[in-house]
Design goal:
This protein has about 70 residues and is α/β, with parallel strands linked by helices. Helix content is about 45%, strand content about 15%. The chain is built from three helices and three strands; from the N terminus they run αβαβαβ. β1, α2 and β2 form a beta-alpha-beta unit. The chain starts with a helix and ends with a strand.
Amino acid sequence: KKYQEALDKPCNCPDKGFRLVLMDIQMPVMGGIEATEKILRLRPTNVLAVTSFTNESTRRECREVGMKDVY
């Protein structure tokens, strides 16, 4: 599946992977929360949520899965 490549890149990049991932919260196939959980299970990195829609519940959920902040 196409989204699998996006999940694999931060985890399989040579020389320690990405230092920062900008994650959209609302995506068509897999949401940013789920994608962040999968990425962080494979390799710790910094994830920032980027979204046009946010509320306190969304911010809390983002931080609970390991995102550093929400913009």
